[in-house]
Specification:
Radius of gyration: 16 Å
Oligomer: single chain
Distance between the termini: 35 Å
Order of helices and strands: HHHEEEE
Strand content: 15-25%
Number of helices: 3
Length: about 110
């Protein structure tokens, strides 16, 4: 278990829960409609390939997780995030999250 993720003791179980509950068929349907292929491959990824990609990203998010101190709240928190192929896997002090993103826009301001 990674130290930064120690507060979530069962991350392997959490990853498998996400893989079980996430609607990969819906993602596959959207990717087929968009003819979305991964670089270096032919055709839309299969549901199994999507699950494998997601599982790898979730594990990588845990491995890259860093600890930081939130000074204004006097708390120690964790954060890790990786993305590829439409998927974003995030780990933070609340848990693990998997998203499939078709469109996103953000602006950031220095405060």
């Amino acid at each position: 278990m990674k130290k930064a993720y120690a507060h979530l003791k069962n991350w392997d179980r959490d990853i498998e829960e996400i893989i079980k509950e996430f609607d990969f068929h819906k993602v596959h349907k959207a990717m087929k409609a968009l003819n979305w292929e991964y670089a270096g491959t032919k055709g839309v990824p299969t549901v199994k390939e999507l699950k494998d990609t997601a599982r790898g990203l979730l594990n990588e998010a845990v491995e890259r997780c860093v600890v930081y101190t939130s000074y204004h709240m006097n708390e120690i928190k964790t954060y890790g995030e990786v993305s590829t192929g439409g998927f974003t896997a995030t780990v933070d002090h609340k848990g693990l999250r998997l998203q499939f993103v078709l469109e996103q826009w953000e602006t950031w301001y220095d405060r």
